[in-house]
Design brief:
The structure is a single chain. The protein is α+β, with helices and mostly antiparallel strands and 227 residues long. It has one domain. The strands form 3 sheets. Strands 1, 2, 3, 6, 9 and 10 form a 6-stranded antiparallel beta sheet that branches. Helix 1 packs across helix 3. It is globular and about 60 Å long. About 3% of the residues have low confidence.
């Protein structure tokens, strides 16, 4: 197996609503949030873990392709690990826990997203459990969110190997792609599905709406993403 190309896909993640990606609470603060957002221990600035974006892309593609919970676990608790030659998920993201896979390493490396600029703010969003019989609020909890309008610089490194020449993929727009172009199409679909469903926690309750802007590959406009 030989790597034939390597590309840098860069883009800006723009928060359309508050974003909550949970972190650890290093110290107990009276009146503080029950669930803080993840922050750099050195700077205290929030960031988007590459693992969060990569995992959400993978899960959304598995749902789209009918691979969710298939050959990898029950009820979707584990990623797909079928390692079949035609499986876009296993080829691009790696065959989960499959030591017999011949597909090689993950084709993408997702970097942590760094905060753009010096102006940023954290908000506390209080949520409740509602008593379905009385309508009364119960068990209020406070979650930190990075406020709407915050942006992060993101990067995905895409590796292409000689065994990818015959790989074929039909994208969400029903367009057939082959080889390195097919790998790019898988990545683009993953980002589109995340953009449609959200990132981080609480997406079904209003958090995590996000758009990906200024998508480029090797510094040029990325043909797989609309301008």
């Amino acid at each position: 197996m030989r790597r034939t190309a390597i590309h840098a896909i860069t883009f800006v993640a723009h928060c359309e609503s508050g974003l909550h990606i949970g972190g650890s609470q290093d110290e107990l603060v009276i009146g503080g949030a029950d669930s803080p957002v993840i922050k750099s221990p050195d700077t205290g600035r929030p960031y988007v873990p590459g693992s969060s974006l990569k995992g959400k892309m993978r899960a959304e593609l598995e749902k789209h392709l009918g691979r969710f919970g298939r050959d990898g676990g029950r009820d979707g608790d584990k990623p797909c690990g079928c390692a079949r030659d035609g499986c876009p998920v296993c080829r691009v993201f790696g065959a989960h826990m499959n030591t017999r896979s011949t597909l090689g390493p993950s084709r993408i490396i997702v970097r942590d997203g760094r905060l753009r600029g010096d102006k940023w703010r954290i908000e506390n969003k209080t949520e409740n459990v509602i008593d379905r019989r009385t309508g009364a609020a119960q068990h209020p909890r406070s979650n930190e969110r990075v406020v709407e309008g915050t942006e992060f610089d993101m990067q995905i490194v895409l590796q292409v190997f000689d065994i990818d020449e015959s790989f074929e993929y039909v994208n969400a727009q029903k367009q057939a792609r082959r080889g390195a172009d097919a790998l790019q199409a898988v990545v683009a679909d993953g980002l589109r599905f995340v953009q449609m469903t959200g990132l981080g926690g609480g997406t079904s309750r209003g958090s995590g709406a996000i758009t990906f802007r200024d998508c480029r590959m090797d510094g040029e406009p990325w043909k797989h993403w609309p301008a």
